[in-house]
Write a structure and sequence with these properties.
Length: 202
Amino acid sequence: MRRRHCNLFRAAGIALALFALPPNAAVAADESKFDPITGYRVARYRAPVPDSVPGGKRVWVDEVERLIADNSVILLDVMASTGAGPDHNSGAWRMVKSREHIPGSVWLPDVGKGTLDTPMLTYFKDNLERLTNGDKSRPILIYCQADCWMSWNAVKRAAGFGYTNLYWYPDGTDGWKEWDGPLAPAHPIPLRPSNAESVEAR
């Protein structure tokens, strides 16, 4: 019994010591999940996100509704793919799980990963240009699911491409659903077959 009490006190002491660590200690422990050069999150994408994103404005569900009502915003779903990736012949994504997202959204899987090769960068750039008709000031709202760093990465990356009117909805489809927002079947935009072959060969 005494040994058990000693262990409890020891555990309590360790816990207190951890709480006593400076705030930057937790940040430093998390740095390995980020690329030190680009700043993108490259690991453990499903984790609590910060309050802001470089190059974008964080929005809440009521603002999402307002943007949709204005009928000017492009809704961009960047949820990760689940499956074997794009088929190299057709460019179609081979998913093992279906997805629902905010009606009217365009789904570009995997563009929020921390590291993208040339075919995936081209896929993201080309689709952004197509959706905006080359207007980099066109409002774009980017999301995936709650606590998803892929949406954070995608906003930061789009800002790096020169897009200036970016909105970030970090609650994603989870928050939208909790707000009783409608959902619609999601169909990912295929890659060009030549690019898909390069992605598959990675």
